[in-house]
Design brief:
The protein is mostly helical. The protein has one domain (5-148): Four Helix Bundle (Hemerythrin (Met), subunit A). It is built from five helices and three strands; from the N terminus they run H-H-E-H-H-E-E-H. It has helices at 5-26, 44-63, 80-99, 103-106, 124-148, and strands at residues 66-68, 109-114, 117-123. The protein has a three-stranded mixed beta sheet.
Length: 166
């Protein structure tokens, strides 16, 4: 296998985002899974699920080269513990996939499909990068939901109003 410099960079970035993402998920009480700040907003539970499942997207991008909306089944956590366990499993899978892919393989195509019809395609490299950004974006949304519900926001890139230090 060729040296996987790019995959190692993604692995490092994913590792840097893991602890703060997990800390956020651990604080989401199941009693608020159905809460949303506005009728057009997604529920807190679904938003937390996105944070927990995006690492699984990375595994699919690398190992399956596609995600089809019809066959990609979302986990349905009933408790915060189930949500966090799902996140942990997905992080392990994403790390394993990144450790086993070459830079050449990252240049191959990924396909987003709906019932077999291609909606979008681009390199695995672009999609892994986009997925990590997507994780960070939704975690940021989740911290706003947390703040609106008086759930302490953990330190992420520096101190928060709730945690003055790491």
């Amino acid at each position: 296998m060729a040296i996987n410099i790019l995959a190692q960079r993604f692995l490092k970035e994913l590792e840097a985002e893991t602890n703060s993402s997990r800390k956020c998920l651990e604080r989401i009480p199941e009693k608020l899974f159905t809460w949303k700040p506005h009728e057009k907003s997604m529920t807190m539970g679904y938003l937390a699920l996105l944070v927990a499942e995006i690492p699984r997207w990375i595994t699919f991008i690398i190992e399956k080269s596609e995600i089809d909306f019809v066959t990609f089944k979302h986990f349905e956590p009933k408790t915060t513990d189930e949500l966090v366990k799902h996140f942990d499993e997905n992080i392990i899978g994403a790390k394993k996939a990144l450790q086993n892919i070459s830079d050449d393989e990252l240049s191959k195509m990924f396909y987003l499909k709906n019932n077999g019809a291609t909606l979008f395609s681009s390199s695995k490299l672009d999609n892994v990068e986009s997925s990590i950004n997507h994780l960070v974006h939704h975690r940021g949304q989740l911290t706003v939901y947390m703040r609106l519900n008086d759930i302490p926001v953990p330190s992420i890139y520096g101190p928060s109003a709730d945690e003055k230090s790491f």
